[in-house]
Amino acid sequence: MPKRLATVLVVGLGRFGGAAALELNRLGHQVHAIEKDPAVAAEFTGRLRRVVVADGSRPAALDEVKAGNCDHAIVGIGFSVEASVLAVANLADAGIPTIWAKAMSPEHGRILSRIGAHRVIHPEAETGSRVAHLVGGRMLDYIEFDDGFAIVKMSPPQETIGFTLAQSDIRRKYGVTVVGVKSAGRDFVHAQPDTKVAGHDTLIVSGPTVLIERFAARP
Question: pLDDT tens digits for 201-210?
Fold first, then answer.
């Protein structure tokens, strides 16, 4: 059965909200948006299902887009903590099942959680942490979960090149698991014991954050 596409309301079309809205639209979801700045709203008109020029922190704006009929809402307001809090509170009152909200500080995030945001995003902090793992190392991408577990995309350490995963015995030596290998010009393949690693390959590796960092630091 195909996955049901969702109706999503995005409040605030700044860099965060705008990027989320366009990607959701590309994925086929029905995206409605509220943006206070007419010039910014004009940039998205015709690219989303509906764009309303209004103050997203006001209940009247939510009524205009029938916010209560949406499956999800994303609050990307970044110019005012007060406006962000009011928008989340009004969305919660409207009964939207899932509310995602951008926070500009840890304190802001705690308030958003208390008043109804189901997921709070700290884009600057999360991006900064992610970049710190990527700078100067062999990691090409990095995703860390709350429980100290990470999945990374990385170039292979020298000791793995020219050997199969069984021969390298990475899991026993380092406590991490190679879950996939991507060779240039070829499709991604799930890792098998007989998968041979080449120098130009990209590895997808999962495991505890500390052990992932130790493995990625190998020459």
Answer: 999 999 998 8
